[in-house]
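Board notes, transcribed. Complex of a protein with pyridoxal-5'-phosphate.
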Amino acid sequence: MFIDLRSDTVTFPSQQMREAMCKAEVGDDVFMDDPTVKVLESKAADITGKEAALYVVSGTMGNIAALLSHDIHGFGVMAGRESHIVNYEGGGVSILAGAFCQQINDESGLPLVSDMELTFKADDNVHLASTKLLCLENTHNRRGGMASTVSEMKVCTDWARNKKMFVHLDGARIFNASIACGERVSDYCALVDSVQICLSKGLGAPIGSLICGTRDFIEKARFWRKRIGGGLRQVGIIAAAGIYALDNNIDRIAEDHANAAMVKKMLDDAGIKTLDVARPTNMVYIKIKDASKTNDIISACEEKGVKFTSTAPATYRLVFHLNVCRSEALKAANIIIEEVERIDA
Ligand SMILES: *Cc1c(COP(=O)(O)O)cnc(C)c1O
């Protein structure tokens, strides 16, 4: 068995989670007949403090169905240059939703008001695709898994409200943000019109995300989900894993944060460069000196039983999750230190 630090998506469903799936009552969810999906959606609505929620198969589908439901075709969408929506969703904002993506600096996780002012396009000028929607990401994956607080997010959302824009939150890891900052998920979500949360990241379910928002918004998203092929039938069988995850796997995310912090400290003490972020969560980013050695270190560590990926030349991302216990985190750190010291001398 590898110690797999490639992502928090590599987790396996536990025996108890599988048992919950086995026992799930099901029905045809396109006919809205699946009782297990209804339970999951109402739990997600409660946790996020929204009127309603919609189960979708992935975070990418959740983000695009939400964006489509904001009627952005022909408008501008402001999203961070380093965001998941911009980098890892196949350009869906433009290709599928027909919006012009106005990318903005998000070096500190959230965009700065001064940058948003510069990027914003008004609707009073024939030259401009006016900006209709702001997308935020918390925690921010490509910014080291950085968590932002509710008050930091409010600065952005207040600005957007003032411009009469809608706000979507890519909350794939909002539970990590909530735990790292000691904030309630619902307090983050109260600031935004729509949010996408992932069950298959830190929460350890095999599949699934939810879009949460007003009842009207969720009915629109239900239409878009069907149109893009995401209407599912007896899907309670996997929704049951999501219910199990929400009931059992939120608080334990703190262990992943503790493991990440321990490994970062070990690397720092060994003189290996890691990315410092203001409010770290379950990720550690490493920088080596010699970019030409990027793949050599990955292969050497894999031979010793530790897997991780590079996100750029000379840059690695380690992600901690429920299938990496403290002693495995410790073991992985020692192997990485040994190989980086040997190869990146
Ligand atoms: C993983 C992730 C998504 C997309 O989720 P998938 O289920 O992989 O499609 C969206 N946003 C962020 C920040 C993510 O980390």
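Residues 58-60, 63, 84, 137, 141, 170, 172, 198, 200-201, 209 surround pyridoxal-5'-phosphate (CB under 6 Å). DSSP finds 14 helices and 13 strands in the chain.
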